[in-house]
Amino acid sequence: DTALLFHSLPVGQLSRTHPVAALDYFGKSPLLFSFARFFFQPIWITRGDKETDPMEGMRQRLREGRSVIIFPEGTRGEPGELAPFRKGIGRLAVDFPHVPIVPALLVGADRALPKSSAVPLPVWARVVVGMPQLFKGSVEEITRILQGMVEELARVEKAGKHERIPGPRDVPTLAVLGIDGSGKSTLSRILAERLSASCRVCLVTDDVAFYEGGVRQEIYTLVTERLREAIGRRAKTASSLKSYKVPKLAELFLRDQIVGQLRRWYRPDLIVMDGCPLLNVTAWARLYREEPPDDTVLSSAMGILSGDEEAGPTSPAYAAFPELARMRKLPLPNLKRPDAVLLMDVDPAVGVERISKRGESRQVHETGEKLGRLREGYRAVCRILEADWDTPARILDGHGELDEVTRAALAALVEMAVLGELPSVGQGRVD
User: Fold this and answer.
1) Which SS3 state, helix, strand or coil, does residue 222 take?
2) For the segment 394-407, what is each residue's pLDDT rounded down to a tens digit?
3) In angstroms, what is the C-alpha Rg of the chain?
């Protein structure tokens, strides 16, 4: 089992990963003990020893920033059956809430090396890896949830033997744009909830949510999402545009990575985004430049950031955006363009008034003058998407009542055919 898991790890992680091993089992054979100690550097525990804490070795390795492999059943059970999990994994999750837990399922290992065999048999074995997650709750609750996750991995793996395993899908993404105070966050959540009556919808806003059957479902936090939230909080407390720029840019790149992780782990039918990293970066150029770049330059910058355009060093985009040249030298992934865009368009004065009514301190860019420049940036982005990138974009009047704006948004989605490939969603159902 340990050899299979080590085979799945990146080479650089092998020396920093330690399986938990029973000394009372491996100590029976000096050869087996020496083999395990040399290759795996295990955390030794003695089952049944009531004088020492078997968890302390695991805690020490985690405090050192290392990884630990735990077999939560505690011992080898019946072939092909999952025994009840012991509570050690739940205790570690409570003690180290910021350390991600990666559930994994071993398939075929029980047949490759049965209890009665001393020599491995030529049987295919697989490691099925689940989503890295962080947990909150009691020891018992976390242990129960983790066992359920591994059981779900087993169920999906078993079903895959009888059905063709579906390949990756190109999940459509809808971005809702708008200046602060436009109502874009509220509209994003309403659309995610409404559309989930007929399909699985993931929402990416200040947090990540999953909707199905018109109801928000319980999910656990992605590790990348926790990091993005921390950087986002840092950006909101910036005292100047210059100090706001770097953490906000980092937050946007992480948000784009989260969208990819949602596609992989949750397999939704639609992803709704409150904002869009690629479009936000492009639109914000209007905020940071005294002389705003024209649509041609903005379009070129968008193409470079998304990897759709190969621009030489003399491109006007690099002259207008010195940061762009520096970003392209870093190993940053290409930002993804959404499949459709809705822009909640409001007067900057209205946006400032709505922000003031929240009773929160305003961020550095939340002034009438700066929001006005952002508004023009988002309008430019919508023009560019339709003219140059064949991406439908609609501008909604955000001054009306929320129900009225929502109806206009749903009608625009039908018109743009964003919902065309989603199950059981059509003009009548949306209305």
Assistant:
1) strand
2) 999 999 999 999 99
3) 26
